[in-house]
Amino acid sequence: MQQESGRRSNRDRTEATRSDLIRAARKLFTEKSYAETGTPEIVAEAGVTRGALYHHFADKQALFAAVAEQEAAAVAAEIDDAAPPSLVPRDALIAGSDAYLAAMRLPGRTRLLLLDGPAVLGRVAMDAIDNRHGNRSLREGLVAAMRAQAITRLPVEALTALLAAAFDRAALAIEAGGSAEDYRAVLMALTDGLAPVPHRAPAPARTR
Amino acid sequence: MQQESGRRSNRDRTEATRSDLIRAARKLFTEKSYAETGTPEIVAEAGVTRGALYHHFADKQALFAAVAEQEAAAVAAEIDDAAPPSLVPRDALIAGSDAYLAAMRLPGRTRLLLLDGPAVLGRVAMDAIDNRHGNRSLREGLVAAMRAQAITRLPVEALTALLAAAFDRAALAIEAGGSAEDYRAVLMALTDGLAPVPHRAPAPARTR
DNA sequence: TTCATCACATACAGTCTGTATGTAAGCGCA
DNA sequence: TGCGCTTACATACAGACTGTATGTGATGAA
After folding, report:
1. For residue B75, what are the contacts with CB-CB under 8 A and spacing of at least 6?
2. Which residue in A179, B21, B80, B194 has a CA-CA distance of 20 to 30 Å to B28?
């Protein structure tokens, strides 16, 4: 049998160290904040030295980006679990919304993804992360709802971004002590308000 | 006549120095970012020393807070100018929205108020600033619209916050190159969607 | 006029970030 | 199986920044 900690392939070492660093950084970034967390503290928590950090990541920002990407993926996974494509659009939207708000209750996640993320990486980079994960299912849900005529046709990118922004703010407000029911009610009202109005002349040009 | 720079009352000196510091900080915070701007640079721009800064402000954050407060007030003033209370609620909302988006086009304002602000001061402190300035008119407009039965009754705090979040994100997206028309259209659709559906029994209990 | 206070300027201590350099272990190759 | 190159770090260093402590001249009240 081989020794306890000897004989590790370089690939394994790299993977383990990177993962340790990301885990340690995630812990501190969520407990405190990006600005209040120093690299000496991160590497101490990870059990390595700053040399390792700067070997694997270009700088502190790059490490933060890796953490943010992982958190965004985790949130997206929770949403996809709760809102399978078998649901009709409106139910999927509701289930997805609730799953999102529930996922964002994990301590420190809102600050990491919604406050520090945009400030540290910029909105553009943060949008890229969101589009790779969370926003994707939202946009697909909206497109499906439009196709099913459940909501009026609107520019998809803009609609996705603005609804996502409302969800984000709701998550922040709830964490700050706001009434979850209030925010949920408003979110529902906002999305339901997008339903095409059936009582006005029922789209004569369209049905003709 | 009195000398050029001699004979100034302490109150005048304080006011002038504080104002110089805020102006210099605003310039740099909007050109770069909070994190990328050091206090040595700020005081150089203001023509004073770091001693003056730390005499008037507890720390760099406090200076930032003063700048954010001023910017928020400036934005609110532009909105109030464009949306006088003489307008009917819906027109006031539209005029206010457009004024907000226009005001946020001033370079660096979105980053200062929408990215750095929440990250540096926290959402709670930023909400306090918003409520003292911009959000106030929005909330009043929404309350008026509810009273006029122009929109359905919803929790006011939550509705204000979520609509404001959508406006904020729109401002960021437009600055990042997004289509202003698209975002405007979605914002209008979101607010118009809040109109009560009139074919349902028109509030009989109330009119009785 | 005198003395306390104010509005700064200067000097200092501690910490952090990023880089440059050194080293031992892995790894392709003859 | 030995040899040289590269990888994965650890250590040392330079520069910058933040906040504080101290010193000083102008101001203002008594």
Report:
1. B100, B103, B104, B109, B113, B133, B134
2. B80
CA of B86, C1' of D19: distance in angstroms: 50
**Do A166 and B166 contact (CB within 8 A), yes or no?**
yes
B159 touches chain A (CB under 8 A): yes
d(CA A26, CA A108): 9
User: Angle of helix A180-192 relative to helix A156-175, nearest 10 degrees?
Assistant: 170
The answer to whether residue A199 scores a pLDDT higher than 70 is no
- pLDDT tens, position by position, B47-90: 999 999 999 999 999 999 999 999 999 999 999 999 988 899 88
Q: Which of residues 49-108 of B touch strand D (CB under 7 A)?
A: 50-51, 54, 59-61
Q: Is A43 on the interface with B (CB under 8 A)?
A: no
A25: which residues sit within 8 A by CB, 6+ positions away?
A37, A42, A46, A63, A64, A66, A67
The C-alpha of A138 sits at a distance from chain B's nearest C-alpha, in angstroms, of 16
pTM listed for this prediction: 0.92
Assigned token pair, A31: 């407990």
Structural domains of chain B in order of their starting residue, each with its CATH number: 1-57 (1.10.10.60), 61-196 (1.10.357.10)
